[in-house]
């Protein structure tokens, strides 16, 4: 008998889920999205954070490579202009505990490019290698019952229509209406938790100045430990010889949208290096703001009842403050859970399959949730959470580890492994990492960014601020 799966949302989570379903032998996979999807790497309305900085961590990239058969997404992205950045040597990072050193040793890498390029590359690869159909449509509900979802209801001129399916995946992102849809099936009482630091993102794109093509990714991180609003800025290389410059400020420290205010904001950070860099660069866009940044966790896996044939993945299950760079990787981890559970079950109709996928996806999201919320609750004016005793203990240990990482490769490696999502946060408590944290940094703190002579010359040549 023919089997049909419907995926709601053609973003990263949706296309990875579609690839998994197609690879698992589902006869027909249909992806529905309310946007008219661009034929080139262009921004679209359905990605509210699409204009801002995105970091594809090593753990997430490894999962994506596993999920899309017959193609290396890494090679495709690099060929399209993405940059591969070494966390150990390829970036300048000022943490709340000072500047991190750059080491001439191997470490995990991440990819940087625009979100538009990343989504377009993944979508194109899936459509080339998998029999997946994408349709423009707005889903307004689920069909079926509390025991089994039978399809989706789609908005249409003259009245809504039903599209039957044996399996439905909600990958509709931050704006999902899954709780309302479940309520319509008689499944009420889903617990939701929102932690909102009030973060506002402001981003402007610049042309990379001549001679600065190899300048490292540069970030001045926000400081959650000083009882003041968090303020940060980042310069990251993206495709087409451009710099994407993203500022972020929590409630009370929001970046402005006017160009002069944007530059002042970067110069007023604990280190003005971002402002110094961009003061001599040519802007290519206006400043774009986004306020859709809260952490939202829907504890669907704890529902007393769950319908067969329905799974929720990506931001629809757990949404993170984008400042931490975890959302895309978590979406890939959830799709990987779907693939592994489908392989074990053997077919879409296996009893309990949807519940097992949901619980596995939730487990893969929990570490990222803990890391994001554990920092956001420290900012003044945060809504939805306060630090508890356990948070304070973890915070104290994390600060000590970060302080040690300024001059200890062992401590820095532990932080990189967790940040890159190659290992769970428990990596920070391995014996070697604990010893490094307790021993502290064997080297004196850096008084400024660890620039090479050539990079210092580039910075001096760009600086128009007189700082």
UniProtKB/TrEMBL annotation:
<dbReference type="Pfam" id="PF01494">
    <property type="entry name" value="FAD_binding_3"/>
</dbReference>
<protein>
    <submittedName>
        <fullName>NAD(P)-binding protein</fullName>
    </submittedName>
</protein>
<feature type="domain" description="FAD-binding">
    <location>
        <begin position="5"/>
        <end position="342"/>
    </location>
</feature>
<dbReference type="InterPro" id="IPR002938">
    <property type="entry name" value="FAD-bd"/>
</dbReference>
<dbReference type="InterPro" id="IPR036188">
    <property type="entry name" value="FAD/NAD-bd_sf"/>
</dbReference>
<feature type="signal peptide">
    <location>
        <begin position="1"/>
        <end position="24"/>
    </location>
</feature>
<feature type="compositionally biased region" description="Basic and acidic residues">
    <location>
        <begin position="454"/>
        <end position="467"/>
    </location>
</feature>
<feature type="region of interest" description="Disordered">
    <location>
        <begin position="445"/>
        <end position="467"/>
    </location>
</feature>
<keyword id="KW-0732">Signal</keyword>
């Amino acid at each position: 008998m023919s089997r049909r799966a419907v995926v709601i949302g053609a973003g990263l989570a949706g296309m990875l889920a579609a690839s998994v379903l197609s690879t698992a032998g589902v006869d027909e996979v249909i992806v529905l999205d309310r946007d008219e999807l661009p034929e080139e790497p262009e921004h679209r309305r359905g990605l509210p954070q699409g204009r801002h900085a995105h970091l594809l961590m090593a753990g997430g990239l490894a999962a994506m490579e596993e999920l899309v058969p017959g193609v290396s997404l890494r090679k495709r992205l690099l060929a399209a202009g993405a940059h591969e950045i070494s966390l150990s040597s390829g970036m300048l990072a000022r943490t709340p505990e000072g500047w991190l050193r750059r080491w001439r040793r191997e470490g995990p890498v991440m990819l940087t490019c625009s979100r538009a390029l990343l989504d377009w590359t993944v979508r194109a690869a899936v459509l080339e290698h998998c029999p997946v159909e994408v349709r423009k449509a707005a889903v307004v509900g689920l069909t079926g019952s509390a025991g089994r979802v039978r399809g989706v209801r789609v908005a249409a001129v003259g009245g809504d229509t039903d599209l039957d399916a044996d399996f439905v995946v909600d990958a509709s992102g931050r704006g999902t209406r899954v709780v309302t849809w479940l309520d319509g099936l008689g499944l009420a009482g889903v617990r939701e938790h929102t932690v909102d630091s009030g973060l506002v993102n402001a981003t402007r794109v610049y042309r990379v100045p001549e001679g600065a093509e190899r300048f490292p990714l540069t970030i001045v991180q926000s400081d959650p430990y000083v009882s003041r609003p968090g303020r940060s800025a980042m310069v990251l290389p993206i495709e087409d010889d451009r710099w994407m410059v993203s500022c972020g400020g929590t409630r009370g420290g929001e970046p402005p949208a006017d160009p002069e205010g944007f530059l002042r904001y970067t110069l007023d950070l604990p280190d003005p290096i971002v402002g110094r860099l961009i003061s001599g660069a040519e802007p290519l866009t206006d400043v774009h703001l986004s306020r859709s940044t809260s952490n939202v966790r829907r504890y669907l896996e704890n529902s007393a009842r769950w319908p067969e044939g329905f799974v929720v993945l990506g931001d629809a299950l757990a949404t993170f403050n984008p400042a931490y760079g975890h959302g895309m990787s978590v979406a890939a981890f959830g799709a990987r859970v779907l693939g592994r559970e489908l392989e074990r079950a053997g077919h879409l109709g296996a009893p309990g399959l949807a519940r097992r996928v949901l619980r596995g996806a939730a487990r893969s999201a929990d570490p990222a949730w803990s890391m994001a919320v554990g920092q956001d609750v420290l900012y003044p004016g945060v809504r939805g959470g306060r630090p508890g005793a356990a948070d304070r203990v973890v915070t104290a240990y994390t600060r000590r580890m970060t302080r040690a990482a300024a001059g200890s490769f062992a401590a820095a490696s532990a932080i990189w492994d967790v940040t890159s999502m190659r290992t769970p946060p428990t990596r920070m408590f391995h014996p070697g990492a604990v010893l490094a944290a307790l021993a502290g940094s064997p080297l004196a703190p850096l008084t400024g960014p660890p620039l090479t002579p050539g990079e210092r010359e580039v910075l001096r040549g760009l600086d128009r601020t007189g700082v």
